[in-house]
Amino acid sequence: MPQGEVMKRYLLLLHRYLGLACAVFLLLVGLSGSALVFKKEIETATGLRPALAATQAPYQAFANTVLARYPNASFSLRFGAAGEAVQARVRLDDESRRLWLDGGSARIVSDTAHDEGLFNWLFALHDALLLGENGNTAVGVLGLLLLLLTVSGVVYWWPRDWRRAFVLRRDKELRVLVTDLHRLAGMLLCVPLAIGALTGAMLVFNKPIKGWLNGWYGATPGKVKVAMATTPRLPLDELVRVANLALPGGEVTDIQLEQKKDKPLVVRKRLPGEIHPYGRSLVDIDPYRGTVLRATPVDVAEPAIRLQTWVYPFHIGSAGGVVHRILQLLAGLGVAALGGSGVYQWLARRHKQRQARLFAVRQVA
Q1: 3-class state of residue 74 by DSSP
Q2: Residues 242 and 296 reside in one and the same domain
Q3: What domain range is 350 assigned to?
Q4: Model-level pTM?
């Protein structure tokens, strides 16, 4: 047998049995990821997310609402377009809460634990298979295995005769048709599958990648602290104004308020040209004196942050607009379909082999 054929044979065995081992997990991660691609639109359409308001309440109004329910809590406020609902992520001693605040009145519309609700459950399933930190690591490994499955599948599929590359043998038994569909779907979705698998693994292993990349470039990100103050915090709207002067343009996407006296207020912005849906440009502000402690537009941020500005939007499908999101939706569904069709092929093949052995035994008898 030619060496190339031997290599293809081993690739097929690798692809087949690795796919069988990962099939159930790929099914879960693929389907949950597909549901999350259009999470915002589904939440809005079903009323899980408050509707768009005509005007937006002041920043301080949102902070006051959260603090009225959870005094002395640290939290962040996530903003969308003007008038959109605001999500508050509250960190308590023994749990985390997710609050939806009406964009116009700043009133609380819903208050749930961070893992309550359909989409929070789907995210926990997609992110960690509902197994916590160990599950998160497993999902990262699964992403690398999916990348290997994608590459091995494309190499094995690569045809000698391109006229037969897209043929579906409809006149054969069901197993043959499913095999052809499996190969065709895998080929058509190989690019979004590879992107989703690689970026997903990079998000899971963000900490070691961050340490290695920053170390390689000699970047040593530091933390800023606030000097002790006896005066109360300045109004949030005034602090946001200071942040906008430090980094003009763009939009405020997130504000992080820490209750520790030495922690700065962090305003996150998406500046023009940033591909990340929430931006990664940051302003650290002394909340008592209103002075800028550090302003970091993304183009001068540490290398690991600049890398993540590309990894995250490519994983969730926001980098290329609606078309990219649809491709990621199809990739998630494709992962589930490929896993299911792969298992079917294996079972059908075993059934055919069993039938052949029974026929041989009967012929001998």
Answers
A1: strand
A2: yes
A3: 3-41+121-215+319-364
A4: 0.87
